[in-house]
Every structure is written in structure tokens, then in C-alpha cells.
Design a protein that fits this description.
By secondary structure, this protein is mainly alpha-helical. The chain has helices at about 1-20, 30-35, 45-60, 65-90, 95-100, 100-120, 125-150, 155, 160-175, 175-190, 200-210. Helix 4 (about 65-90) packs antiparallel against helix 9 and helix 10 (about 175-190) runs antiparallel to helix 11. The two termini are about 25 Å apart.
Amino acid sequence: MIRESLASDLTRLAESLGRIAEGVTATHGALLRHQLAARSPSEAEYAPALFCLRLAEAISGKRDAGLAGAESLALLAEMGRVLQGLEDGRASSPAQAWGMPRALNAGDAFFGLAQECLASGTEGLPPRRRLLALASLDAGARAFSEALGAGARLEDAVRALFPAGAVLAAVLAGANEEQTRRLTAYAEALSRAPERPLQEVLSGATAAVQAA
């Protein structure tokens, strides 16, 4: 059951990101669309996005409650693919295919889209909660970029985004402050722990919601 749900969530996120990229009319919009269309996202790279989606659903009972947060985290993962390509020099990397200046623009564009997506998805929320969501995304992006800069694999570096995933899920799903604190603590421990199967992580997220 969890395996089929993960496949469905991955497909849904990929389709959402495709629609978001279609709305980018600047020159580098074609680069974003090319990157998104050229591959199938992996569970490992999108783990924090899937975590956010599942956690928000567990909190609210609504399947799409955390979609804006999940989309923003998936866009950061795509930014990470570009940044990693600037370092590894593989012929298949965006930096090699597009050239360094265009790849940098594309990486910036993915980050900007992540912020824009979350800003749009949190409209109508109380200002304090909206600022908490946006600040969490920025902090996650910084920690993620630092991990990539230190040489971590993309699949390992994205683990730095788990705390942001918890905060975004809590904010979007309407968790109270105590629930948000406990879920964030769970996600911070998760980001530092040895890698675990995503199915186990998502089961733990549901248990964390029940405990909170």
C-alpha cells in the first residue's frame, strides 16, 4: 500500500512541477522544462517532499494539504541537481549540457520558483505562520546547499530538508505550536540519523503525528 502511494505521490509531484515550469516565460524556463522532462524523480531525491506531503495528510486528513510545501521542496531538490552538476563535471550534468552561466541561472530559477510556490500556497494564512513557513524553506535551502558544497551526494544532502518538510507540513495542515515543535524535533533527529528506508520514515512520521 505504501509503495503504491509513494509512486502516486511521485507522479503527482512530477506533474505539478511540470505545470509550474510551464508558467516560466523567461529564457531559462526552457532549461527548467528540459531538466524536469528528461528524467523520472527518485524517492531518495524527493524524500523530504514526500515526507511533507504525507505528514500534512496525517495531520489534517486532507490529501493535498501539504502540496505547496512538497512542491517547494521538490523544486529545491531540482536546484540541488544543478548545483551538484557544477561540481562533478559529468557530461550529462546540466552545467555541461547548458554551460556554466545558464546552469547558474537555472539553479537560481528553481530556488526562486520554490519560494514563489510556497508564498502562493500560504496566502491567507496568519502572517506569523506564513513567515515561519518561508523562513523554514530558506533555512532548509541554506543547509542543503552547504551539504552539497561539502561534497555530499544529492540523496544524502536532501536529508537537510527534513526539518523544513516538518514545519511546512505543520503550518499548511494547521498543527498547533506544540505539535509543530515536536514534529520539527522528530525531523531534525531524522536528518542526522543514518539513512532509513523511506517507507519506514513515512510510517514514523504518522506515528509522530499521533504522539503529538
